[in-house]
Amino acid sequence: MRTLRDCLCIEDVESALRELPKDLDETYDRILNNIKEMHRNRVKCVLRLIVVACRPLTIDEMSEALTVDCEEENINPKRRMRDPSAILQICSSLIGLSGYRFDLFRKY
Length: 108
What we know:
It contains 6 helices and 4 strands, in the order H-H-H-H-H-E-E-H-E-E. It has 108 residues and is α+β, with helices and mostly antiparallel strands.
């Protein structure tokens, strides 16, 4: 959808539609490959937290959880996101908010 939103004319839309991934696996590959290198570790952490959480997390809880540095076994306040809603931007097309809680876009 982001690709189509960036189209400025019908010719751009037609070209984008011809270049769409052929199946769901290719779609996820494209999504994952479009994540900026500087955000990849954070995206992995968000996805892991969603999978292991006992209940859906709020955006503020997710932001707070990202301050935990498991390798150093401490909390690093410098890792706190200035804008927690940025989590939705860096994980675009992979997660969404259901009410105020995170939810994975399911692969069905």
